Amino acid sequence: MTEEDDDVAQRVATAPVRKPDDETAFLEYIEMENFKSYRGHIVVGPLKQFNAVIGPNGSGKSNFMDAISFVMGEKTSSLRVKRLNDLIHGSSIGKPVSRSCYVTAKFVLNEERHMDFQRAVIGGSSEYRINGESVSSSTYLNKLEKIGINVKAKNFLVFQGAVENIAMKTPKERTALFEEISGSGLLKDDYNRLKQEMIVAEEETQFTYQKKKGIAAERKEAKHEKMEADRYTRLQNEYNEKQVEYQLFRLFHVERDIRKFTSDLEVRQQEVKAVEQRKEAADEILREKKKDAGKITRDLAKIDQE
Questions:
Q1: Mean pLDDT over all residues of the chain?
Q2: How far apart are the first and last CA of the chain?
């Protein structure tokens, strides 16, 4: 989809970006000065959790996306221009209004601290500032990475056709993309080197182990018969002692359990006898009550007949 047949919107999500330490960075304002189709000083914001930039073709929706991409450190090739100077307003028609332009992204960190990132084009080259202080491009990009924005990973700026391109990638290409997004790709050389060192170390360890194992087997074979005889005698004596202790232990507990169960049985028998006596008394009372109830029923029947 191109800008010419896009008459709906360019959408920009400014939800908080998660940092590795679970802090948040929220894009609150975008300021532009003579950037592409935006002449003069333009302030967009305060932005919400989700924002939609809508308008007819040629109204500057894609240029607003380019402004965000530019201040986040995107390369010139991703901004639809050949040279940095082409980003200055009027350069596309050969009439630049100024020798410079800039875009500033104002973030709120942890909902309390502010941090400004500014990228400018001056004299055909980029200049970078953080909170007004001039810094190198590497420092600028590293600081963005610390708040969760890694332009090399391409995981927060989704350009037209990017989703389709990912879907058309081979599994190997998608794996490479995910490694780049996660940052693990940067460790690939170290990983391969350490893996090779690990393989060599494992082989040396295995060789040393097998050699040691052979020596130990020879020593063990030499002492095996004597050790087995001594071990058998010792274990036999220990077994006999433990058997005596075990039988005495069982006898002690059996006698104790017999006394306990006998005592418990006598108590339970007394309880059963008491319950049976109460039951007999209750049965007698029940029989009397039934007689009384029968007499009352007959008396009521006679009264009803009269």
A1: 81
A2: 107
